[in-house]
Amino acid sequence: MAYAPAALDALGDPTRRAIFERVAERPRAVGELARELPVSRPAVSQHLKVLREARLVLDQAEGSRRIYRLDLAGVEALRAYLDGFWNRALASFKDTVERQQQETP
Amino acid sequence: MSSSTQSADTSVAASIVVDAPIETAFRVFTADIGSWWPSDHHILDAELTEMVFEPRAGGHVYDRGVDGSECRWARVLAYEPPDRVVFSWDIDPRWQIQPDPTRTSEVEVRFTAEGPQRTLVELEHRGIERHGEGWEGVRDAVGSPGGWPRGLAAFAERLTASARGPLS
Question: N or C: which end of chain B has fewer CB within 10 A?
Answer without folding.
Answer: N
